[in-house]
Amino acid sequence: MTTTRKWKVPGVVFLYRNGTDDRLWHSIDWNDCPDGGPGVCDINETMYFNPSEWPMRNSEAGAWKVAAEVYFKGGGRDVDTKNLTVHVKRNSRLTVNASPEPAVKGKTITVTGKVTRANWETRKYASYGGRHVSLQFKPAGSTSYTTVKKVYANSSGGLKTTVKASKTGTWRWVYHGNTTTGPSKSSGDKVVVK
């Protein structure tokens, strides 16, 4: 931020919708600002969104615009908006279970799980139905997973599919997220194939 006027409070960056008075509240840290200016102020700002500490509505997830504001000594302020968009996202979680363990080569392995999403208003995780989730497999001795198939969760967030047992390895679910919800990966469930 650069200003030719003296400021009362160093400038801040904030998120807004439907006009710059419709803001998403957050906590701010800043530094490198000359006392009162004028001059150049390098803002190092961190936004903290913690629904367990501050009330947040689920509708606040999604796209927000970015703006900056400074209050001047003697009165007045300046607000500048930029054509920048950020997405505030609710957290998601996945579980996994692959069975039977051990499995017989050539037979069927059933992989189940569930996708849930943080509900900021109840402060709990709730079913997130209809999501498109990837089933991934990592053979024993390998360091990377490969997508085997994609499955839609049912209305309760439940996931279920079958695969043929071919080799020992680890199964997991991966959800890639969207504009209101962050991505997530389940833990891995290893199945020995004999």
TrEMBL record:
Source organism phylogeny: Bacteria, Bacillati, Actinomycetota, Actinomycetes, Kitasatosporales
Protein name as catalogued: Calcium-binding protein
Species this chain originates from: Kitasatospora albolonga
Superkingdom assignment: Bacteria
